[in-house]
Design goal:
Shape: elongated
Radius of gyration: 22 Å
Number of helices: 6
Helix content: 40-55%
Structural class: mainly alpha
Number of strands: 2
Strand content: 5-15%
Largest sheet: 2 strands, antiparallel
Length: 108
């Protein structure tokens, strides 16, 4: 399937026979119904809005379900990939990873 085929509008026959409605689609993607609608509106999953409701492409849902989940995981993965390995210390030991933590204020 080429990129051109992915952007073409599916036929009504194809949508009704193979695509999923919101409930089963949300289960397949591993998210709630409302979140699935938001994902569709953002263009993260392929969907078609009809007079009888939304229909979602199963391949698009499986691809979304396979992605790593969690905002924290995504940000951590990006940050880790961007950082360089810490240089070894003079005595041959590896330097501890650079972790930024909030400093607690002293209570007086």
């Amino acid at each position: 399937m080429t990129n051109e085929a992915a952007t073409e509008e599916p036929t009504l026959e194809e949508v009704l026979s193979t695509w999923l409605t919101t409930g089963p689609a949300a289960e397949l993607a591993g998210v709630g119904d409302r979140w699935l609608v938001k994902l569709a509106e953002k263009g993260k999953v392929r969907h078609v809005k009809t007079a009888i409701g939304r229909f979602y492409q199963p391949e698009s849902l499986r691809a979304y379900a396979a992605l790593p989940k969690g905002r924290w995981l995504h940000k951590t993965t990006k940050a880790t990939a961007a950082k360089k390995e810490p240089e070894a210390q003079q005595d041959g030991e590896q330097a501890p990873p650079a972790i930024r933590t909030r400093q607690r204020k002293e209570v007086r």
